Amino acid sequence: MVDGKGIEIPVRRLTRASDFAALESATLVHFVVVSGDEAARAIAAEFETYLIERADTWSNLSDSERMSSDETAFEFVRRLEQLGCVVCSGVDQAELRFDDDPSQTRGWHVGCVVISKLDDEAPFATVTNG
Predict the structure, then answer these.
(1) pLDDT by residue (tens digit) across 81-124?
(2) Angle separating helix axes 63-82 and 38-57, nearest 10 degrees
């Protein structure tokens, strides 16, 4: 983020496969694991890999393939819920600069997927550089 402080992205719990549609507007998605045991962290790593690979092919998918992809992604949410975790996501506008030239700062939609134990669930996620 431009000022180095980061941004707070409002997030809400994913409760159905169609909730993944909100992430479609994001230029980039930040993935955060706040808490969870080793089994949850292993599933979270698989989930992150799935979302990265999915982003690479998303624009080439038909509507039915996108729905199927959302269902597959939501299966990770269900697996994490069985381990006492919650999965939240959100998208917000941020001013980002990817080099040292301030004239290159632009507004981007930044998404965030947050995995935490129920006790650690928060209404927002803070995304920072580094």
Answers:
(1) 999 999 999 998 876 666 666 667 767 788 899 999 988 888 88
(2) 170
Please compute, for residue 16, the number of CA atoms within 13 A of its CA located in the half-sphere on the CB side: 2
Radius of gyration of the chain, Cα coordinates, nearest whole angstrom: 15
Element (H, E) at 64: helix 63-82
Confirm if 29 and 23 have CB atoms less than 8 A apart: yes
Beta strands of 7-105 (E only): which ranges?
A: 7-10, 12-13, 28-33, 85-96
For 52, residues 6+ apart whose C-beta sits below 8 A from its C-beta are none
Mean pLDDT of 7-11: 88
Amino acid at residue number 125: A
